[in-house]
Predict the structure.
Amino acid sequence: MDQASKTTDHPPDLSVQLGPLHLKNPVMVASGTCGYGEEYADFLELGQLGAVVVKGISLRPRPGNPPPRLVETPSGMINAIGLENVGVAAFLTEKLPYLRTQQVPVIVNILGNTVEEYVELATRLDGVDGIAALEINISCPNVKKGGVLFGTNPEAAAGVVRAVRRATALPLITKLTPNVTDIRAIARAAVDAGSDMLSCINTVAAVAVDIFSRRPKLANIVGGLSGPAIKPIALRCTYEVLQAVQCPVIGIGGIMTATDALEFLLVGARAIQVGTANFINPRVTLEIIKGMERFLRVEGLENIGDFIGALDTRCVFPFAEEACDLETMMSKE
Amino acid sequence: MDQASKTTDHPPDLSVQLGPLHLKNPVMVASGTCGYGEEYADFLELGQLGAVVVKGISLRPRPGNPPPRLVETPSGMINAIGLENVGVAAFLTEKLPYLRTQQVPVIVNILGNTVEEYVELATRLDGVDGIAALEINISCPNVKKGGVLFGTNPEAAAGVVRAVRRATALPLITKLTPNVTDIRAIARAAVDAGSDMLSCINTVAAVAVDIFSRRPKLANIVGGLSGPAIKPIALRCTYEVLQAVQCPVIGIGGIMTATDALEFLLVGARAIQVGTANFINPRVTLEIIKGMERFLRVEGLENIGDFIGALDTRCVFPFAEEACDLETMMSKE
Amino acid sequence: MAMVQDDARVVDQQEVAERTFRLRLRSERIAVTARAGQFVMLQVHHGTDPLLKRPFSFHRIMPEEGLIEILYRVVGRGTWCLSQCSPGNHLKIVGPLGNGFTLPEKDDRTVVLIAGGIGIAPLHELMVQLTSNLQADKRHAIHLFYGARTAAELIPTHLYSRLGIMVHCSTDDGSSGYQGYVTQLFELMVNQERHRPALLYACGPLVMLYHVARWSLAQNVPSQLSLESLMACGIGACLGCALPAPHPDDPMTDSYLHVCKDGPIFKAGSIAWTKLQRQPTTPQIYLYN
Amino acid sequence: MAMVQDDARVVDQQEVAERTFRLRLRSERIAVTARAGQFVMLQVHHGTDPLLKRPFSFHRIMPEEGLIEILYRVVGRGTWCLSQCSPGNHLKIVGPLGNGFTLPEKDDRTVVLIAGGIGIAPLHELMVQLTSNLQADKRHAIHLFYGARTAAELIPTHLYSRLGIMVHCSTDDGSSGYQGYVTQLFELMVNQERHRPALLYACGPLVMLYHVARWSLAQNVPSQLSLESLMACGIGACLGCALPAPHPDDPMTDSYLHVCKDGPIFKAGSIAWTKLQRQPTTPQIYLYN
Ligand SMILES: Cc1cc2nc3c(=O)[nH]c(=O)nc-3n(C[C@H](O)[C@H](O)[C@H](O)COP(=O)(O)OP(=O)(O)OC[C@H]3O[C@@H](n4cnc5c(N)ncnc54)[C@H](O)[C@@H]3O)c2cc1C
Ligand SMILES: Cc1cc2nc3c(=O)[nH]c(=O)nc-3n(C[C@H](O)[C@H](O)[C@H](O)COP(=O)(O)OP(=O)(O)OC[C@H]3O[C@@H](n4cnc5c(N)ncnc54)[C@H](O)[C@@H]3O)c2cc1C
Ligand SMILES: Cc1cc2nc3c(=O)[nH]c(=O)nc-3n(C[C@H](O)[C@H](O)[C@H](O)COP(=O)(O)O)c2cc1C
Ligand SMILES: Cc1cc2nc3c(=O)[nH]c(=O)nc-3n(C[C@H](O)[C@H](O)[C@H](O)COP(=O)(O)O)c2cc1C
Ligand code: FES
Ligand code: FES
C-alpha cells in the first residue's frame, strides 16, 4: 500500500532542535523502558535514535519494590518497579562508559526524595562527558512534605527545578505527571524556574486487584499505567502544556507506531519518547523512524519541522459558501 | 467451564443498601449511556437492574456539541457530546412517565453552569414521584469562575453540594471527576457538604487528532475518555476515595464484565455503574448480574455484602515460617 | 420491528471488488424484520481493541433463509478485522436499526438511484425491492447511477442490470464508463434525456450527497439520502451520531439530528448542509505501520 | 548467543493434553542458538489487547530444521488467543532469552528431574540433551518425577520413557500413578531406594519448587530450578520480573534478582524464599464472562 513519493530523492530531514539539543530525529526511548541502553544492543544501534533516556538514577542504589511489580490491563500495563536503579556512582562507572561508545545523545533521568538529593545528583552529573541533558523526574514523593509528590504542586516542582538549575549547566527537561488538576500550572512553574524543556507524560496512577485471591495485583497496590490506553490522555496533556509554555515539549505516552508519534508532533511536541512499546517490539523505535520518513515523503514534506504543531483547529464548513442559496431553497421545500 | 456450586439452592443475595437507597442488585447503567431508559426497552427489562441513571439533565434543553462527537481509542472511546439533553421540563413530562412504569429506581443526573442552576434543578425534582436520588455531575464548567470545573476544586464542589442539599430531601450522590490532583480532598468536601454517597469516576480528559487532515478528531478538541482503558484509573480513584470517606461509594469506569464489576466491589464500592459497555452489548448489565451470582455461588458466599471491601492488602509470605531454618541452610550452601 | 441482539454465524465471505467484501450472516431474528436502508451494528473483533461495534447497511435481506448480507470496504482496523473472519465464526450483532428507505407509492414513475463507491451497499436491497413487484418493461424506469474511483472498485454491474433496471457507470479515472463524478453523469443524462426522476435515492460520500441534495432541492424532486456518522451505540443512547439540522424557529441556534434514530435516511432538506463541518479523512490503514 | 526478534511462522499446533497445546514455530535464527531452559517472548495476538508478549520455555529445539516447539497451558486470555492461531500465521518472537540449564559435567551419576504440571515444558528438551550422548544403560540413571492434578493433564509419558529414562508419575487425585504430590513421590522413592541424586532439575508451581529447594538445601544436593515471574520485556529492560534474593551482606536489606536475566534457572540458595510473597492466583478464564 505504499504510495508514490511526491518529493525528490534525498531522504526527508527528521532532525529537530530542542533548545540547546540537536537531535538527528525526534524519536527517543523513554526512561525506565530501555534500561541503560545496553539491554537493546542486540536489537538496534542506539546511534540510530534521536536520544536515549536512561532508567531513573538516584543518589544511592535502590532495590525497588517487592514483586509483583507488573500487571497487564486493557491496552496497557501498570508498573510499580519502585525506581530500582544502580545509583549514580555505579551509573557513572559501569553504565555510562558503554553509552559513550554509542553515537547517541544520553539524557539522564534523575530522581530524589529531597531537593538536596536532586541537587547532589545534578552536581555529580554536571560536566560529565557523554551526558547531553538531564530529565528531572518530579513524580517522586517529597519525604519532607509527608510524601506528596513534587510534581503535583507548582511550588514544589519549581523548587526542585530551580535548585537543579543552579547546580548544573546541562540542558534541563522536567518530566510532568498527568495526575494533577492543572498540568499547565506545573508546566509554567517548571519553565519559570529554569527548565529548558518539558516532557510529558509520566505514568497515570492506577490500581488492579484480583477477585479470586482478593488481593491487589501489585505488591505496592498503586502503580503507574502506561501503554496505548493512556495515549489520549498524554495527547491532551501535551496539548494543554503547549498552550501554557513556549519551550520545546517532548510527548510521551502510549506511542506504538509512527502514526502515534506523528500525532504528538502534530499537536506541537518537538520530539517524542517511546516507552512500553519497546517491551513489545524492541525494534519499534526504528520502525517509527522509518514510518515518519515515509509519511513525510507521501505528504511531500522535506522537514519534520514543517509538520510539528501543524494542527488546524479552525472549523471548516465545506458547503457553507455554495450552500447559501441552499438555505433559501430549503425554506421553500 | 462452570464449577459446581458450594452453597445451597436459593440464589445468592445481591441486594445492597446505599445509604437510604435499597437496590435489588449493585448494577446500574451510567448517565449518558442509557439515554432515558426507553432506548434499551427492546433489550432488557429495566426492572432487572439495580438502578437507572438517566442522561444528565439541565434546566433548559441543550443541543450539544457539533459533530464529530466521538472517537475510538485503544480499548476506549472519547466523547464530546456536550451534554445534549431535553431539559428538565421535557424530562418530567416526556421521559419520566415511561420510567415510572418500570420497576426500577431512577437516579437523575443533574448538571449546571452556576450553583443557582443546580439548585433550581434540585428544587424542581424534589418530591417528584418516581425519582429515587439525584446524582450531581460536578464535571461542568462554572461560568462564574472563568469556566473552571466545579469538580476540580474542593470549595466549588462543596458549594454545589451544600446548595443542592438545602434544596431537596432526595438522597444525593456526587459524581467525582478523576482529573484532579487529590480526589480524596474533593470526596471529603462533598461528603462534608451533605452528599449521602459518591460515584466515581466520570470520564478522563483526552484528545485525539488525525495526522492526515491535521485536525482534531473531535469538533470540541477535548473530550472524555471512557471504556476498559480507564478501568485501572477508576479502580485507583475508588480505592483512594474509600480511604477518605465512610459513605457508600459507587464505582464507575471501564466495566465490561462481572469480573470487572466485582473488582470495584472488592475494593469497597457498594455498587457500580456500567457505561460504555452498554454500547457494545446492550444486554451487558444482565450478563454482569448473572456472572456475579455465579461468582458468589462458586465462592460459597450468600450475600454480595460479604465480598464488598474484602480486599486483603497484607503481605503474605507463604514460606516464611517453615523457611526459617532454610536461611541457616542457605548460609551453609 | 423491535431491535434485537443476536449472535450471528458467518455463512460466507467473498472479496467482490478491490478491498470490498460481501459478508453473509445467519440471523433469523434480524432477517425477518429488516427493511432496505436500515443497518446493523456488528462486532468486528473479540476483545477490547477495536472496542466498538461498526454500523453496516443491509446489502441483501433474505427473510426466508434467515440470512442477511452486508457489503463493506476495508478502510481501517475494524473493517480489516472483519475481513479476517471466516465461515463458522460468530459475531454479535444488533439490529435492525434506523428508519430505512420509503418505497414509492406509485410504481409507474422514473426512479433514480445514485451510488458513490461503497454507497452501493444499501441500494442493492432497495433495487431488489423496487423491482420485485414490477413487470419487466416498467423496470426500465429505474435508473442506477453508480460511480467509483476506478474500475477495480466497482461491483460487477450485471448483478444490477439483470434486475432489469438501467445502469449507468462512471469512474473518476475513466477506467470504466463515463469519466468524471457520478453526479456529473447523472445531471448530464437527466438534462439530455429530459426525463425527470420523480424520486431520488442516494448513498455515497458526503460531497456526492451534497450535490444530490442541491439538485433535488433546486429541482424540487423528493430525495432519500443515506447518511453516515461515527456511531457508538446505534440505538439512540449515546447521542454521538449527531448531524446539524436546520432549527425549526431560529437559524442561529444549533439543532441536531441523530443518524441512528432519525436516519440514516434523510431527505435533502433535513440536513443543515451549511453547518456541516469537515471531518478527518479516511486513513490508509497501516500505511505508516 | 545474541537475542533476536523474528517473525515466526506457525508450522503446527496440537492439543496434547487437557487445555495443553504444543506449538511448533519456524525461526531459524532462534533455533540455532537456543539452549534448554531458555525461553522466548511470544506475541499471542495482533493488536493492543492483550498488549504484552508472553514468556514460554523451549520445549524442543531443532536447529537443523530451524524449528522450535513450545508447550503451554491455556490459563488466561493470552494463552487462549495463542491457542486460536493456526499453521501459516506469523507471530513476533524474541529470543533466546535467559540463562538456561547447565548440563552435568560427568554423565555417570544419578540425575533427577521433577516436573509439576506444565513444568514439564522445559524439561523435555533437557531430557533429550541429557540422553543424546548417553549409552542406553546409563540412561536409567536419569529419573523423571512428573506430577499433575489429574491424568487428563499429563502429557503421554511414553514420549519420555522411550528416551530410555525412568519415569515416575503422580496425580493429586490418583487417577494415574502415585496419589499425592510429586515431591512426596520423589522423597518416598529416594528414601526407599537410597540412591541419592547427584543433581536435581525442577520446574513447576512455586510451592513445588519450594519443597524441592528445601530438600536440595537440606541434603546438600545441587539443584537447578526454573522459576517464573510476570514479565513485560524479557530482556532485562523493565525490571518487572524481580524475585527476592538473599542480600550478600545484610539480610534485612531488600535485594532482587531478575528472572529474565539472572534466570529463569536458579539454584535453590539464590532465592530468598522467606521473602517471597503470595501472588494472585491463576484466574479461570472467562468463568464470570
Ligand atoms: C448507518 C451506516 C451504514 C453504513 N453502512 C456501510 C456499509 O454498508 N458498508 C461499508 O463499507 N461501510 C458502511 N458504513 C461505514 C462503516 O461503518 C465504516 O467504514 C466503518 O465503521 C469503519 O471502521 P474501521 O474500523 O475499518 O475504520 P476506522 O479505522 O475506525 O476509521 C476509518 C474511517 O472510517 C470512518 N468511520 C469509522 N467508524 C465509523 C462509523 N461508525 N461510522 C461511519 N464512519 C466511520 C472514520 O471516520 C475513518 O475515516 C456505514 C456507516 C453508517 C453510519
Ligand atoms: C521464563 C518463563 C517460562 C515460561 N514457560 C512456560 C511454558 O513453557 N509453558 C507454559 O504454559 N507457561 C509458561 N510460562 C508461564 C506463561 O508465561 C503464562 O502462563 C502466560 O504468560 C499466561 O498468559 P495468559 O494471558 O494466558 O494469562 P493471564 O490472563 O495474563 O494470567 C493468567 C495467570 O498467568 C500468570 N501470568 C500471566 N502472565 C505471566 C507471565 N508473563 N509470566 C508468568 N506468569 C504469568 C498470571 O499471574 C495469572 O495468574 C512461563 C513463564 C516464564 C516466566
Ligand atoms: C517499567 C517502567 C519503568 C519506568 N521507569 C521510569 C523511570 O525510572 N523514570 C521516569 O521518569 N519514568 C519511568 N517510566 C515512565 C516512562 O518513561 C513513560 O513516561 C511512561 O511509561 C509513558 O510512556 P509509554 O506509554 O510509552 O510507556 C517507566 C515506565 C515503565 C513502563
Ligand atoms: C457518550 C457518553 C455520555 C456521557 N454523558 C454523561 C452525562 O451526561 N453525565 C455524567 O455524569 N456522565 C456522563 N458520561 C460518563 C459516564 O456516565 C461514565 O462516568 C464514564 O463513561 C465512565 O464509565 P465507562 O468507562 O463504563 O463508560 C458519559 C459517558 C459517555 C461515554
Ligand atoms: S450512535 Fe448512539 S445515539 Fe446514534
Ligand atoms: S521481564 Fe523485563 S526485566 Fe525481566
In short: The interface with chain B takes residues 48-49, 207, 210, 213-214, 217-218, 220, 246, 251, 267-269, 273-278, 283-289 of chain D (CB under 8 Å). Residues 284-289 of chain D have pLDDT under 50 and may be disordered. The radius of gyration of chain D is 19 Å.
